[in-house]
Amino acid sequence: MSGLAIATAQEASVSSAQPPIERLTIRRRGVGLRGYDRERAFAGFTLFSPLSSSNKTVYLVDMLGNVVHTWTMPYPPGQSGYLTERGTLFYNGQIPNESHVGQAPYRGGAALEMDWKGRILWEVNHPDHNHDGVRLKNGNVLLICQKLLPADIVAKVRGGRLGSEYDNGKMDAPYLVEMTTNGHVVWEWLSWDHLDPEQDAITAVQDDRDVWTVANSVSEMPDGNLLVSFRDISTVVMINRRTGAIYWKLGAPPLAGQHAPHVLSNGNVLLFDNGPHRLDHSFPFSRVLEIDPATKAIVWKYQEARVSDFFSPRISNAQRLPNGNTFINEGWFGRFFEVTREGAVVWEYVNPYFGARQQLMINAVQRAYRYSAADIALAQSAA
Predict the structure, then answer these.
(1) pLDDT tens for residues 133-176?
(2) Which of 145, 153, 224, 293 could form a disulfide with 128 if both were Cys (CB 3.0 to 4.6 A apart)?
(3) Distance CA 295, CA 297 (A)
(4) DSSP state of 374
(5) To the nearest 10°, the Cα dihedral for 274, 275, 277, 278?
(6) Sign of the four-CA dihedral 67, 361, 330, 306
(7) Cis status of the peptide bond prior to 254, with omega within 30 of 0
(8) How far apart are CA 256 and CA 373, in angstroms?
(9) For the whole model, what pTM was predicted?
(10) CA 41 → CA 37, 157, 338, 369, distances in Å?
C-alpha cells in the first residue's frame, strides 16, 4: 500500500471515531461562560430573552453562567424584557396579524408586566406595536407602533432601494402610543409630522423602502421627555412630551443604524452604534458610544483595535454598570461581555439557547441587562 493510501486509511479511521463537526458557527466556537475576571467585573445577574420564534423563556444567569431563575411567557419575544424599578419584569411579546408590521420579524403586539413567580399583573395589546415598549414613570405604557405612511409623503422619501416598497409602492412609518395599563390610549406622536422625508433620508442605498425611519427604541429621560432611535435614517432624537417637538437630533455621521440610546446619570447618552453601512468609513463595524448631548462630542467609546472584530448589524444594546464598566450585548451573535473604561474585557458569555427564526437556527438577543444582587432581591419580593 502506498504512503498516500495509508494516510487516507488512517484519516478515515480517525474521522469515523470522531463526533460530527457542529454546523452552527457560533455554537462551534463555544457557548456559555467564556471568561470571568472576578476582581474587575461587576458581580451580578444577567437577564436576556432569546429571539427564536419558539422561545417563551426569559433567563437570569449568574456570573458563572448558571441559570438561577426563568420566567415563562405567554408569547414569544417581540424584542426584549427588563426589570422595572419596582422589581417586576416588563416584557414585549409577539402576536402576529395580517398587516405588514404584524408579519415582520420585529413585530410586537403585546406588552405586559410579570412578578417573580410568573403572575401577569397587567397586559395591553396593540396590533401596530413593534420593536420596543416601556413603562413610564406615570404608570402608563409607551409603545413604538407602525402603520401606513400617507402616499404623498412616500413620494418624497429619499434613499433606499427603489422598488423595494411593499404592495406596489406602500411604506410604513412609526408612531408612538401612550396608553394606560387597561388599554386606554391617552397620547400619540406621528413621526411624519416631525421628520422631513427629504432631509431625514434613508442612509443606506441598499436598504429596503418598506418602512421609513424604523423606530427601534424609546426611553423616558429623567426630565420626562423621550429619547427615540430611528435605525434606517441613523438618527437619534429628543422629543418634548408636552409639545411633541423634536428639540435635539444626532444623525449620520457619526451614527450608523444605532440601537438602544438612553441617558446616563451624568446626562450623557449611551448607545450601541451598529454600523452596517457607515458614511465615514469604508467598511462596517460596531462600537459603543457615550455622547455629550450639549456638544454632540463622543466622550467615550468601545470598539476593537481591528474594528471588524466587533460587529452586530442589527439589534444589540449597552449598559453602564455601577462600577464604571460597560455591559455590552453583541445581539446578532448572542454574545454578552463587560469591558472596563480602558476597554479590557472582564466577563464574556455566549447565549447557548438556539432556536428557529425565519428558517434559521439563531441565538440572537435583542437586549440583555446586568442586575445587582439587590435588584434581584427586590424582584423576588415584588408583588
Answers:
(1) 999 999 999 999 999 999 999 999 999 999 999 999 999 999 99
(2) 145
(3) 5
(4) H
(5) 150
(6) positive
(7) yes
(8) 35
(9) 0.94
(10) 6, 46, 7, 14
Amino acid, res. 86:
R
Length of the chain: 383
**All structural domains of the chain:** 34-381 (2.130.10.10)
CA atoms within 13 A on the CB side of 290: 17
User: Are 246 and 238 in contact, with CB atoms under 8 Å apart?
Assistant: yes
Angle at 171 between CA 169 and CA 175, to 5 degrees: 165
Written as nine digits, the cell of 310 is: 466587533
Asked whether the CA dihedral 100, 103, 104, 110 is positive or negative, the reply is positive
Q: What residues does 228 pair with on adjacent strands?
A: 218, 237
DSSP assignment string, 4-40: HHHHHHHHHHHHHHSPPPPS-HHHHH--EEEEE-TTT
Q: What is the dihedral angle through the alpha carbons of 98, 114, 59, 128, rounded to the nearest 10 degrees?
A: 20
42 class by beta-carbon count within 10 Å (0-12 exposed, 13-18 middle, 19+ buried): middle
Rg (the chain; Cα; Å): 22
- Per the listing, cell 460597560 goes with 326
Name the helix (H) or strand (E) containing 317.
Answer: strand 317-320
Any idea which residue has 437586549 for its cell? Answer: 367
Question: Residues in the chain with pLDDT < 70?
Answer: 1-17, 383
Q: Which of 251, 246, 258 is nearest to 289 (CA)?
A: 258
DSSP string, 184-234: -EEEEEEGGGTS-TTTS--S-TTS-SSBSS-EEEEEE-TTS-EEEEETTTT
- Distance from C-alpha of 381 to C-alpha of 87, rounded to nearest angstrom: 8
